[in-house]
Amino acid sequence: MSGAGTALLRARGLRKDYGKGEGLVRAVDEVDLDVATGETLAVMGPSGCGKSTLLHLLGGLDRPSAGELWLNGKRTDRLSERALAGLRRGEIGFVFQAFHLMDELTARENIELPALLAGRSPRQARHRALALLDQVGLADRAGHLPPALSGGQRQRVAIARALINDPLVVLADEPTGNLDSAATLEVLRLFEQLHASGLTLVIVTHDERVAATADRLVSMRDGALVDEMRLTGGGRRSFADLLRLEDS
Amino acid sequence: MQQEVVLAMLAKEPSQGYQLRARMNDALGPLGEALNAGQIYVTLGRLEKAGLVAVEETPEATGPADRDRKVYVLTAAGQQRVAEWLAEVSWPKPDLAEFHLKLIAAAAAGLADPIGIVDAQRRELLRRLRDAQRAEMAVPDGSDAALLLEGIVLRLQADLRWLEACEANWTIRRRKR
């Protein structure tokens, strides 16, 4: 029995404590969460609400103090360090606010790196990296070093890197936090395109623009999930309200 | 339709109604869908009565019902009005006070939960943001319509941030009680 039902990612009673006794801080407090295959979920909340810690737990970057975690039907909260490292490398893609690209490697080499670490041949890695560069609209930037790229382009390279090992889910921590309005739109466009191709995406953000592109939005306060809303359906509405050109 | 908008659109050159509509649609992109096609002729009629616009009938005009054949021209008074309008400093006022007072009144009378009201509003604005963003992604970068949609998106973002502040504030008030 998997215990995970149809959810790709499932958390039950997830908790993360820091400190002890009087100084105990419960960064993540009894979180239950299901993420379906192909879903884009946004987790919103003020800074310090525990949303980044939650993402780190979901991605196996950090271990929970209590609770259970499943990825694709497999318990992941009790894996050995070695197994967890394999999981992070192969099954989960990470995207960070500050891109975390290596400045001395080209865009293509940055993208290839996780594939090489996972044991793919240099030829396979290169082939896949070039295809991903094309997919994120940066085919002509393969040989550029990150400092020669704009913020939006760097984040798109980072997203391509997150995809190189064909992960089950991509976890993004404030992916537009360092980007201006135009670059944010570039990244949102890419997320929409990946969503359409069936990618499962969990995004932690305080950017309303990112939240508005998600299928589902959960709000976090003081370590707990307090509210959930679904944004799908409805289609495009009339813009009459936005326009207000009518004489009154 | 705001009369000055139609008037100013006409300042480029004498035009027929459909040409004005096309100019508006280019500038508005997907938002132009909300424009009522007949409204522009109603506005032109009013402007004509006010002496701001004159009509030149084209030779091929077949009758008064053939409204699209009419060519509209700015009069001197119309030119003057456009110049004044361009120089005017005005800005649409967001009605935050009404919403603010709604929360205060709801809490004071115990009629509704202010946080629930904020939440419902937040959902609505997020949906609008989603729609505006979708439209923004669909129009060409750098187009007139993209610039307008960016403005709408930024404004919705500002409103959503204020709602977040409202929620935080009312949550603290509730805890104190």
Description of the structure:
The complex is a heterodimer of chains A (248) and B (177). In chain A, 33% of the residues lie in helices and 26% in strands. By secondary structure, chain A is an alpha/beta fold. Chain A has a single domain (37-63, 80-231), classed as Rossmann fold (3-Layer(aba) Sandwich). In chain A, the strands form two sheets. In chain A, strands 6-7-8-3-9-10 form a six-stranded mixed beta sheet, sandwiched between helices. In chain A, strands 2-1-4-5 form a four-stranded antiparallel beta sheet, covered by helices on one side. In chain A, strand 9 and strand 10 form a beta hairpin. Chain A is globular and about 55 Å long. Chain B folds into two domains: 3-87, Orthogonal Bundle (Arc Repressor Mutant, subunit A); 96-176. Chain B is 64% helix and 6% strand. Chain B has seven helices and three strands, in the order H-E-H-H-E-E-H-H-H-H. In chain B, strands 1-3-2 form a three-stranded antiparallel beta sheet. The mean pLDDT of chain B is 88. The chains are: A alpha/beta (248), B mainly alpha (177).
Total helices of chain A: the number is 8
Strand tally of chain A, please? Answer: 10
Class inferred from helices and paired strands of chain A: alpha/beta
Largest interface: A-B, 29 and 38 residues
* Elements of chain A, N to C (H/E): EEEHEEHEHHHEHEHEEH
In the CATH scheme, what's the topology name of chain A? Answer: Rossmann fold
CATH class of chain A: Alpha Beta
Helix content of chain B: 55-70%
Uncertain segments of chain B of ≥5 residues (pLDDT<50)? none
Shape of chain B: elongated
The fourth-level CATH homologous superfamily of the largest domain in chain B is Winged helix-like DNA-binding domain superfamily/Winged helix DNA-binding domain
Residues in β-strands, percent of chain B: 5-15%
User: Stretches of chain A where pLDDT falls below 50 for ≥5 residues?
Assistant: none
Proportion of helical residues of chain A: 25-40%
Please state the structural category of chain B.
Answer: mainly alpha
